[in-house]
Design goal:
It is a single chain. 31% of the residues lie in helices and 22% in strands. Helix 1 links the parallel strand 6 and strand 7. The longest helix has 18 residues. Strands 1, 2, 3, 4, 5, 16, 17 and 18 form an 8-stranded mixed β-sheet that branches. Strands 9-10-13-14-15 form a 5-stranded parallel β-sheet. It has a 3-stranded parallel β-sheet with strand order 6-7-8. The chain is globular, with a radius of gyration of 21 Å. It has 428 residues and is α/β, with parallel strands linked by helices. The model has no long low-confidence stretch (mean pLDDT 97).
Amino acid sequence: MTAPILFRGGRVVDPSQGLDEVTHLLVVDGRIAAIGRDIGSPDGAQVVEAGGWVIAPGLIDVHVHLREPGQEDRETIATGAASAVAGGFTGICAMPNTDPVIDNQSAVGFVKSRGEAAGLARVFPIGCISVGQKGERLAEFGEMVAAGAVAVSDDGHPVMSSQLMRTALEYARTFGIPVADHCEDTPLAHGGAMHEGIISTRLGLKGIPAAAEEIHVARDCILAALTGGHVHLCHMSTRGSVDLIRRAKEQGLSVTAEAAPHHYTLTHERVGDYDTNAKMNPPLREDADRAAIRAALADGTIDCIATDHAPHTYDAKEREFDDAPNGIIGLETALSLGLRELVNGGVLSLGTLIERMSCAPARLWHLPGGTLRIGGVADIVAFDPTASWVVDPARIRSRSRNTPWAGETMPGVVKRTVVGGRVVFTGQ
């Protein structure tokens, strides 16, 4: 049992119940106990003076790479969870493309138990769609769900077989879990290293056309209509994908989607002189794509923000651009980028940002948290939206340092992260 916590005088923002007011919030026995101006301080309570802070449901990330087992030099479940709570995340979903992959009951149980042992953010395992992520036969969804898997995905390895994807959607539907798909037509992508366009031509790098993503998105939407299954489209990056998702939602299909901060923040011009911290999959696209992703986050076509946190060692990212691995870390910069680019940029209200980073992922993936309703689990982020910090890779909690925002000043400082009523991070 933990001591009660009373947040006094913070701006409590909870889109799940249309709440946005300066008031007090009380946590007792790991649950939200009361919200209001007339709350007293129980005996033994930890009183937090939260004037000027935002108190919101803890952030939830449905797309994180924790690298354990097999690549602990890049990240472990414990260091990833530490990075998460430093960024205000109370729940993170661990992608299964580890070494070995998470494609069976015992592997799912391993991730879950390591997450619980870390005692920081809640770690929700994602199981593979196919055995070994080979795209040949389905993994045993039922056993993985029984062990704690909240979704299935072959992220990093697109499911090229439409028949296998159809079966996966039908099978996953019986367990009420989403199938999170990495949308890429690999023959069309043809081993490209960046977005196909004027920059790739100038740099002499093989490009990945937007169509490589959009063909896959179109197929998945059609299969969602055929099966009634829930397909979740990972890290959307193109305006064509946004159009396809919008049409699917207009038809009432069970299609949800996420966007990563780097895709609504950066463009392919960031590759510059072969900067490997601008190498992603899907790649950074053109300004019109970035604008479309922002608009889709504003109107709800894209449901949520996910970091696609992808830790890599310094040596790995120091290779030539063609040979460097894809991805960047993102757990500790996501909230600040949302504030800087979307809220301060006039794209989203603060409430809508919280909806995209907390309420929606909890609601769509049936995860705990995402609300401050009385009686709900006390998963909370408290941050000062007016304070700023400088991204210093040496101070990042992740085991890896591959961020393109090193040295930049960011708005929004996380002051407290609370999971199940327990303070797991205290910021300056």
